[in-house]
Design brief:
The protein has 13 helices and twelve strands. The protein is of the alpha/beta class. A six-stranded parallel beta sheet has the order 3-2-1-4-5-6, with helices on one face. The chain has a six-stranded mixed beta sheet with strand order 7-8-9-10-12-11, sandwiched between helices. Helix 2 runs parallel beside helix 5, helix 5 packs across helix 7 and helix 12 crosses helix 13. Bound molecules: manganese (II) ion. The site of manganese (II) ion has 6 residues, from loops.
Length: 343
């Protein structure tokens, strides 16, 4: 069997080994709202640093300015902790884990130049990688955890069970429970999963939806207005928060296209989120619709073919109901226009 694996330059593997062996003060930085991929990769890299460096007085830390709820569950389950702090104290070596640019972290940028910088990531490279002495970046990898697993495999080190659980969580999370997995993802999973119950990993990655989100979904449904254009079902609704998730829900339960408005009087802000089915996205582009609606509202909008949104200022001269009505009508009209012109 030919093993298809992520390609990492042997020179890079050796250089990484050298950095970890020779440095005992290392900070592993994760991006804002650190997700299971960032957390899993950082935990595993810290473990690697710990076994490669023999000093007694090591200082190996993981830090992020915020951590997602799911990541907190995983950390708790594995008995790991990370420091949640802005402007962490920088150490001799600083790793950017699952992080491609400086706007994803809160650090003292000036002080960074006193450290050896290393990047391990799977996003598109940015200028930050030029500042790094070593960047192990593979845009083709589904997750940073997949890259880190491959680093272990190439170094011939099989990490202990807890570390493999952390890596599997990251891979499962970033591949949307394997929907985005590639052949090499399965190869690396086969290598990691020995003695691990796959259902346990899936369980670690499930969480109850917030009550506020569930209520918003239900309100969006109960307030929904249904219209029809050329056989397409258009769902229009409004909530005060979670509009994106509500728009997604309306499509998932049967609409072809949905627009959900949230008027936030306090912030004097109007937000709209739109979603449509893949079939419909072959005819219209949600991002273009949102951009055009935003223009009419003097706001800003855009996005992808199937998912998009906009922000605009709320004009206090009008009542909330009036604004909601106007904005939804506008979304509907522009959608209709775009649909007709696509014929
Ligand atoms: Mn990631």
């Amino acid at each position: 069997m030919v093993l298809i694996m992520i390609k990492i330059d042997s020179k890079d593997i050796n250089f990484l080994k050298k950095i970890l062996k020779e440095n005992k003060n290392i900070l592993f930085l994760c991006h804002h709202n650190a997700d299971p991929d960032a957390i899993g990769a950082a935990i595993a890299l810290k473990y690697l640093a710990n076994i490669l460096n023999k000093s007694e007085d090591k200082n190996l830390r993981i830090s992020a300015d915020s951590v997602s709820k799911l990541s907190k569950n995983i950390l708790e389950e594995l008995g790991e902790s990370i420091e949640v702090v802005q402007y962490p104290k920088l150490l001799n070596v600083v790793f950017f884990v699952d992080t491609s640019s400086l706007n994803q972290i809160t650090v003292n940028t000036q002080e960074l130049k006193n450290s050896i910088l290393v990047m391990v990531d799977h996003h598109k490279k940015t200028d930050l990688s030029h500042l790094c002495s070593l960047s192990i970046v593979d845009e083709g990898a589904t997750s940073t955890c997949e890259i880190v697993s491959e680093i272990f495999r190439r170094m011939n080190i099989c990490p202990p069970k807890d570390i493999r659980v952390a890596l599997l969580c990251g891979i499962l999370y970033d591949t949307k429970h394997l929907k985005l997995a590639k052949e090499e993802t399965f190869q690396i999973i086969a290598w990691l999963i020995r003695d691990i119950n796959f259902q346990r990993i899936l369980y670690l990655l499930t969480q109850d939806m917030d009550e506020s989100k569930r209520i918003a979904h239900l309100k969006a449904c109960s307030r929904m207005e249904i219209r029809e254009v050329e056989g397409y079902i258009v769902a229009l609704s409004h909530v005060s928060s979670h509009e994106a998730s509500c728009a997604k829900t309306l499509v998932s339960i049967g609409a072809d296209i949905s627009f959900v408005v949230a008027v936030r009087k306090k912030n004097r802000e109007i937000r709209v989120s739109g979603r449509c089915r893949k079939v419909l996205s072959k005819r219209i582009h949600m991002g273009e619709i949102m951009e055009e609606v935003a223009n009419k509202l003097d706001g800003e909008g855009g996005g992808h073919r199937e998912a998009a949104g906009l922000n605009a200022q709320y004009d206090k001269g009008k009542s909330k109901d009036e604004v909601i009505r106007e904005v939804l009508d506008l979304c509907y009209d522009i959608f209709k226009e775009k649909l007709y012109s696509s014929n």
